[in-house]
C-alpha cells in the first residue's frame, strides 16, 4: 500500500477526531453535561478504534476545565441519565424496541446491515468499522490510490482552476464521507460543514467537463451521497468474494426511476454464471453512472441465500393523483417536488445576489413566499413529506455570478475578470470570500489606507458589487471581503495587502479610465499593478515589490514572455543593472 496514500487516510481520520472533540466540547460547555448527541458521537468514534479516554481528556483540555468543573459535568450527566432512564422505563415495549433499533443503526453504513445477514448465516466476517477496514474499502473504491474517495472527477479546468483547489475540494468531500460513514456526524451536518469551509476559500460552483454546472452545495451533497453508496458497495463485493458467495438481492423503494424499477427487489448472480438468475452487473448497470449505485441512486444490494432468505413483497406505488388539473404518477410527483425545491433555492440565490449589490429584493421575497406556499400545497396534495433540508441555502456559498440578477446588473458592475481578484483560476489561490461582509472596524482601517494613498474615500463603496473592483464609467471602486489577503496562501496575488489592492484599483484602473484595453486583457491588469507599484504613495517596499511581481505574473499567465525592465529590477531586486 502506498505510504503517502495511507497517511492521507490517517490524516482525514485525525481531522475527524479533532472535529468531534470540538463539537463535543461545544455541547458540554453549553449544557454542563455530555448530551445524547455528544455521547453518540463519542460512541461512534470508539467503535471506529478511537480512545474514549483520549476524547474525554481532549474535550476537557479544550474547555480548560478544572477538577471541579469536570466533576460537575460528570454528576450532571449521571443525574440526567437517571431521569431519562426513568422515562424510558415507563415507555411501552414496542417504542423501546424501535428506539433501540434506531440507536443501533444510527450512523451505520449499509455494510452493518449486510454483516448482520452474514452472521445470521454462520459466516465469520469482521465488522469493518476499523481504520484498516476503511482503508481497504477505500483502496477498492479508488483503484488503490486512496485519494478522492468520493470520485469527484471530470472537472473542467477553468472551474477549479488549479490542482491545489481541486485537491482541496476532493479532500473536503473525502472528510465529509468519513464523518458520515463512521456515524460521528449526520449527512446534513457533514455536508454543511464541508460547503461552509469550501465557500470560505472562494469556491462557489463546480463545472464539469460534461458541460453540467452545479452550485457548491448541490455538488457536495451529490458527491458525498454517491461516494458513501459506492463505498458500501465495494465492501459488499469484497465480502462476496471472500466467502465465494454469488447471489445478491437488490433493495426497493417507492418513487424509483422507471429504468431502475425494473430490477429492484430481484435476485441476481453476482458472477453472472448462474443459469437460474440473471447477471447482476449486466441487468442493473452496476458500476455505471446511470445504474445501481450510480449518481444519486439510493438502491442497495445484499447477499441472498436461496432457501433461507425471503424476497419481500413488491412495493405498491400509490395511485396517480390529479393536482391542479394535471395527473402525476408517484415518481412524477417526486420529480415535480425536486423541481420546486430547486426553484426555491434559485430564488434564494437571486435574493442574495440583489442584496449584495444594494438592490431592492421585495419582489423576489414575494415570489419566494408564493413558491413556498405552492411547495407546501403540492407536497400535501401529493402525499409527500416536505424536505426542509433541501430548501436551505447557506449565505455566501453560492456562485452569484450565475444568477439572473448578476447577469442583468452586470452592465453596472465590473466584469469578474477585471478586478485585482479577477477569478479563481487566474488568482491560483484563495483570498477571503467576497461575500464575507466587512465590519465597521475593517472599513475604517481601509479608509485610513485610502487616505495614506491619497485616494478619495468617497469613491469607495463598501459591501456592494460582487467583488472588489473598479466599475467602468462610474468612477466607483467596490470594496468587498476579498480585499482581505489570505496569509496562509503561497500565491503572490493572494498575499497582496489591502493597501496594494487599493493602489491597483485606483492608480491602475481608476486613473486610466476609459481603458483602451478590453475588460480582462492581461495588458490592462499588467498596467494596473505596474502603475500602482511605480506611482502610488504610502506603499511599503514589500507592497511595491509584490505589485510589480503581480504585473509580470499577468504576462506570464497569458503566455507572453516579458523581461524585467530597469524599474522592475530596481523594485524587485533593489538594483537596475
Structural account:
By secondary structure, the chain is mainly alpha-helical. The protein folds into four domains: 3-109, no CATH class; 131-303, no CATH class; 321-402; 411-573, no CATH class. 54% of the residues lie in helices and 6% in strands. The chain is built from 23 helices and ten strands. The strands form four sheets. A three-stranded antiparallel beta sheet has the order 4-3-5. α20 (498-509) packs across α21 (522-535). The longest helix is centred in the first third of the chain and has 29 residues, at 3-31. The radius of gyration is 28 Å and the shape is elongated.
Q: Brief overview, please?
A:
This protein has 577 residues and is mostly helical. The protein has helices at residues 3-31, 36-47, 52-62, 67-89, 93-105, 110-120, 131-141, 157-160, 163-181, 187-200, 216-243, 258-261, 280-284, 330-356, 362-382, 404-409, 424-427, 440-452, 492-495, 498-509, 522-535, 541-557, 566-573; strands at residues 205-207, 213-215, 247-250, 267-269, 301-303, 321-323, 326-328, 460-462, 469-471, 476-479.
Question: How big a fraction of the residues is strand?
Answer: 5-15%
Number of strands: 10
Q: Please give the radius of gyration in angstroms.
A: 28 Å
- Low-pLDDT runs of 5+ residues are 1-6, 91-118, 121-135, 138-165, 409-430
Average pLDDT figure: 71
Q: Structural class, from secondary structure content?
A: mainly alpha
The helix content, as a percent range, equals 40-55%
Overall geometric form: elongated
How are the strands ordered across the major sheet?
4-3-5
What is the terminal separation in angstroms? 53 Å
Number of domains: 4
**Count of helical regions:** 23
Main β sheet profile: 3 strands, antiparallel
Amino acid at each position: 500500500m502506498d505510504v503517502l496514500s495511507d497517511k492521507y487516510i490517517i490524516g482525514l481520520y485525525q481531522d475527524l477526531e479533532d472535529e468531534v472533540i470540538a463539537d463535543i466540547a461545544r455541547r458540554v460547555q453549553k449544557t454542563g453535561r455530555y448530551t445524547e448527541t455528544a455521547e453518540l458521537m463519542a460512541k461512534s468514534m470508539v467503535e471506529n478504534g478511537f480512545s474514549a479516554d483520549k476524547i474525554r481528556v481532549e474535550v476537557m483540555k479544550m474547555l480548560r476545565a478544572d477538577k471541579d468543573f469536570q466533576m460537575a459535568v460528570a454528576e450532571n450527566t449521571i443525574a440526567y441519565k437517571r431521569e431519562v432512564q426513568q422515562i424510558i422505563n415507563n415507555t411501552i415495549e414496542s417504542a423501546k424496541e424501535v428506539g433501540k433499533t434506531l440507536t443501533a443503526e444510527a450512523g451505520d453504513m449499509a455494510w452493518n446491515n449486510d454483516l448482520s445477514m452474514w452472521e445470521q448465516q454462520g459466516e465469520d466476517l469482521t465488522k469493518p468499522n476499523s481504520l484498516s477496514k476503511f482503508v481497504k474499502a477505500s483502496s477498492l473504491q479508488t483503484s488503490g490510490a486512496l485519494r478522492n474517495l468520493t470520485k469527484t472527477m471530470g472537472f473542467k479546468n477553468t472551474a477549479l482552476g488549479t490542482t491545489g483547489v481541486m485537491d482541496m475540494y476532493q479532500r473536503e468531500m473525502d472528510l465529509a464521507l468519513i464523518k458520515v460513514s463512521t456515524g460521528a456526524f449526520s449527512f446534513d451536518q457533514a455536508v454543511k460543514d464541508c460547503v461552509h469551509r469550501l465557500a470560505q476559500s472562494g469556491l462557489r460552483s463546480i463545472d464539469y467537463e460534461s458541460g453540467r454546472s452545479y452550485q457548491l452545495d448541490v455538488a457536495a451533497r451529490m458527491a458525498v451521497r454517491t461516494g458513501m453508496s459506492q463505498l458500501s458497495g465495494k465492501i459488499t463485493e469484497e465480502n462476496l468474494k471472500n466467502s465465494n458467495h454469488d447471489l445478491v438481492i437488490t433493495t426497493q423503494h417507492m418513487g424509483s426511476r422507471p429504468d431502475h424499477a425494473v430490477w429492484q427487489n430481484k435476485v441476481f448472480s453476482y458472477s453472472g454464471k448462474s443459469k437460474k438468475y440473471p447477471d447482476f452487473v449486466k441487468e442493473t448497470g452496476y458500476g455505471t453512472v446511470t445504474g445501481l449505485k450510480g449518481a444519486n441512486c439510493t438502491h442497495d444490494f445484499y447477499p441472498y441465500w436461496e432457501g433461507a432468505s425471503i424476497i419481500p413483497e413488491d412495493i405498491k406505488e400509490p395511485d396517480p393523483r390529479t393536482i391542479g388539473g394535471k395527473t402525476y404518477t408517484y415518481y412524477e410527483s417526486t420529480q415535480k417536488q425536486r423541481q420546486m425545491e430547486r426553484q426555491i433555492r434559485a430564488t434564494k440565490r437571486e435574493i442574495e445576489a440583489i442584496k449584495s449589490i444594494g438592490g431592492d429584493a421585495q419582489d423576489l421575497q414575494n415570489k419566494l413566499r408564493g413558491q413556498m406556499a405552492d411547495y407546501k400545497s403540492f407536497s400535501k396534495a401529493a402525499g409527500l413529506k416536505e424536505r426542509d433540508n433541501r430548501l436551505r441555502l447557506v449565505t455566501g456559498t453560492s456562485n452569484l455570478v450565475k444568477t439572473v440578477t448578476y447577469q442583468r446588473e452586470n452592465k453596472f458592475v465590473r466584469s469578474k475578470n477585471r478586478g485585482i481578484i479577477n477569478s479563481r483560476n487566474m488568482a491560483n489561490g484563495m483570498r477571503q470570500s467576497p461575500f464575507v461582509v466587512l465590519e465597521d472596524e475593517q472599513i475604517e482601517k481601509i479608509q485610513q489606507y485610502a487616505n495614506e494613498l491619497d485616494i478619495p474615500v468617497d469613491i469607495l463603496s463598501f459591501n456592494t458589487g460582487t467583488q472588489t473592483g473598479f466599475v467602468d464609467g462610474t468612477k466607483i471602486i467596490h470594496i468587498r471581503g476579498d480585499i482581505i489577503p489570505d496569509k496562509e496562501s503561497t500565491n503572490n496575488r493572494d498575499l497582496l495587502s489591502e493597501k496594494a489592492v487599493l493602489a491597483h484599483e485606483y492608480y491602475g484602473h481608476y486613473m486610466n479610465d476609459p481603458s483602451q484595453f478590453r475588460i480582462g486583457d492581461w495588458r490592462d491588469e499588467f498596467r494596473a499593478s505596474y502603475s500602482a507599484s511605480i506611482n502610488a504613495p504610502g506603499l511599503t517596499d514589500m507592497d511595491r515589490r509584490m505589485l510589480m511581481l503581480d504585473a509580470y505574473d499577468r504576462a506570464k499567465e497569458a503566455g507572453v514572455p516579458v523581461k524585467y525592465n530597469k524599474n522592475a529590477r530596481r523594485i524587485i531586486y533593489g538594483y537596475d543593472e
